[in-house]
């Protein structure tokens, strides 16, 4: 009996070491291997070992980092189960993904420091890892959709279930992104109350942490329509709306900024720091057209004047001839 327990203990220890090693040796661009998947009888052991690893980690930021790794493993499991068309196991992976993302969301609220700048620094580090995870999640979702579409081996009901699972995975990640942005906003308010500009401090910290700021707003105006592409904190949105063509560029930009502010729950002041591309097409064409029309009118007026002058000359000639006779 003791020998059997000893063997089980060795097995569990080896399993734990392999699992931890698999996670720690991943690069930022690689997706963690699924390892033990939800269709395995040992899946419960995999979850137990992960929970033990979190329990033995006492730093809140490190807990979040480990849990993001675990969320990535759940994502990898969902991918593998989808490709095997084991939708029941895929649902299980998605449900466990939701549980771990809820834990991350709660831990984000606990990020703190007596120094507001240090608190923002920690939030930025976590945000960077969340953004990296989101990139992998979107890549996996796209891969699953493409492979399922090309295989043609699933029913409409299965397709609907898979789409629902993928949507849920995105929703869990979106909730975490909203939470980290909310906490960052609160920290920047504290920094402002301390006499500094939160946006300036964030830019400085991003430089120190070598975090590239890819936020961008692209506005294209054409034929009374405004097309907008926005990327803020790696979240992209596209939308369009009608506009009064007589408005100036600045008036159009103001309307767009207000619309983005409402959609992203970000102040217009914060949006002003983001680089913007603005294109207004057809305005030059309209001016050229108006100019051409004006020239045509002038030419027509000139022709009319010439005709009038010629008619006048003919009348004068006729009058002189009559008078001579």
Characterise this structure.
The protein has 325 residues and is an alpha+beta fold. It folds into 2 domains: 2-208, no CATH class; 216-281. 70% of the residues lie in helices and 9% in strands. It has 10 helices and 4 strands; from the N terminus they run αααααααβββααβα. It has helices at residues 2-24, 43-55, 60-83, 87-108, 116-151, 156-193, 198-208, 249-264, 268-271, 283-324, and strands spanning 216-222, 225-232, 235-242, 275-280. It has a 4-stranded mixed beta sheet with strand order 3-2-1-4, covered by helices on one side. A hairpin with a 2-residue loop joins strand 2 and strand 3 (235-242). Helix 1 (2-24) crosses helix 2 (43-55) and helix 6 (156-193) packs across helix 7.
Element layout with pairings:
Elements lengths: L1 H23 L18 H13 L4 H24 L3 H22 L7 H36 L4 H38 L4 H11 L7 E7 L2 E8 L2 E8 L6 H16 L3 H4 L3 E6 L2 H42 L1
Parallel strand pairs: 1-4
Antiparallel strand pairs: 1-2, 2-3
Helix pairs in contact: 1-2, 3-4, 3-5, 4-6, 5-6, 5-7, 6-7
Features:
single chain, 325 residues, alpha+beta, 4-stranded mixed sheet, 4 strands
Quick recap:
By secondary structure, this protein is α+β, with helices and mostly antiparallel strands. The chain has helices at 2-24, 43-55, 60-83, 87-108, 116-151, 156-193, 198-208, 249-264, 268-271, 283-324, and strands spanning 216-222, 225-232, 235-242, 275-280. A four-stranded mixed β-sheet has the order 3-2-1-4, covered by helices on one side.
Give the ordered list of helices and strands. HHHHHHHEEEHHEH
Number of helices: 10
Largest sheet: 4 strands, mixed
Please state roughly what percent of the residues sit in beta strands, choosing from under 5%, 5-15%, 15-25%, 25-35%, 35-45% or over 45%. Answer: 5-15%
Name the average pLDDT.
Answer: 81
Task: Report the strand count.
Answer: 4
